[in-house]
Design brief:
Blueprint (H helix, E strand, L loop, with lengths): L2 H4 E4 L3 H5 L5 E6 L5 H12 L3 E9 L3 E4 L2 E4 L3 E8 L7 H4 L3
Antiparallel strand pairs: 1-2, 2-6, 3-6, 4-5
Length: 96
């Protein structure tokens, strides 16, 4: 798998933006991706050094609209921590 098959999109929320000062970046990743896959994909895509990867499986929430109901899709989230000597990811710099 190449890097863009593993990293689906960055997660841009208030909580994830607070982690950028500590060099923690949040991404939605493929459900089948392991921590090692995510580490290699981030290093390849952004040319940085990854210290640690935490993954979280996010369950779909129950949503109702009138009489019908269903679940939103479930997905996988990865919080990537970079090393101290690594440069930051430029994509997130414009968000701050």
């Amino acid at each position: 798998m190449i890097a863009h098959d593993i990293i689906i999109r960055p997660i841009i929320t208030e909580k994830s933006m607070q982690g950028i000062t500590d060099k923690k970046y949040t991404f939605e990743v493929a459900k089948t991706a392991t921590k090692i896959d995510v580490k290699h994909a981030v290093e390849e895509a952004f040319k940085v050094k990854v210290a640690k990867v935490n993954t979280i499986n996010v369950r779909g929430k129950l949503k109702r609209q009138g009489r019908t109901q269903g679940y939103t899709r479930s997905w996988k989230k990865a919080v990537v921590t970079l090393t101290e000597d690594s440069k930051s990811i430029e994509f997130f710099e414009g968000m701050m």
